[in-house]
Amino acid sequence: MRAIQQIEQVLEDSLEDFSISRSERKELKELLNRIQGNTSEQAKVRQVAFRLATKVMNEIGEVAAMDWLQSVIKLLYSKEASVKSSGYFSPGEDCLHCIQRFICEAQNTLDICVFTITDNRIVDNIIDAHQRGVRIRVISDDDKSEDLGSDFDYLESKGIDCVHDKTSAHMHHKFAIADDVKLLNGSYNWTRSACISNNENITVTNHKPLVQQFQKEFLRLWKHLR
Fold first, then answer.
1. Distance (Å, whole) CA 25 – CA 57
2. C-alpha angle with apex 215: 210 to 221, nearest 5 degrees?
């Protein structure tokens, strides 16, 4: 039986006593986790819930039906409610501090895919994370790694695993993933000039489907460039 059909059955059962019991709530959460991030499937569940609420409205009253419906919708989008995203802008040190905090908060893994790194303040944070046991992988552009002030050779000398793009085109990404659950992404180059002069941006989010998309791209590049 498909997840949508199972969800509909649980919802119908819950309407027998006009409330979602603890066991029904637990079962619903497990079923709804299967369609997490699938907006099409979530829309189908929402339609089912509205149809069922409308069907019993005359029997249990509008208030009770709407309370039941609200409980279902809250469960349906409970994961989205836990999504946290923030934006940061330069010039100024907001983006720099965002990157530093992102690195410092990493506990187990840190995957970095950036055009270049020349800001020693960020480099120091990366090395500190490496020394406290965070597994770090860095992908950079090969041409920019030869620029004056580039810190990739220094990172490699500290035992951090780094690879360079070897194509004629630029590896122009600027993103990082911490612990497979948090993404940092934006136009901001990890350089002092980006902090001092440029109009740049960074977004940080824990939105699972988006984090997974970037993780997949990082792994593709890493495998290709090794």
1. 21
2. 130
Q: What is the pTM of this model?
A: 0.66
Q: Which residues are catalytic?
A: 172, 174, 179
- Write down the domain spans for the chain: 3-81, 85-225
Classify domain 85-225 by CATH number.
3.30.870.10
pLDDT higher at 39 or 108: 108
End-to-end CA distance of the chain: 43
Instruction: Tell me the average pLDDT of the chain.
Output: 88
CA–CA dist 49, 180 (Å, integer): 33
What pLDDT is stored for residue 147 in this prediction? 54
- Contact in structure between 111 and 185 (CB atoms under 8 Å): no
**pLDDT at residue 19 greater than cutoff 80:** no
- pLDDT band per the 50, 70, 90 thresholds, residue 1: low
b/e code 119-138 from CB counts within 10 Å (16+ = b): beebbebbbebbeeebebbb
Tokens of 54: 């409308």
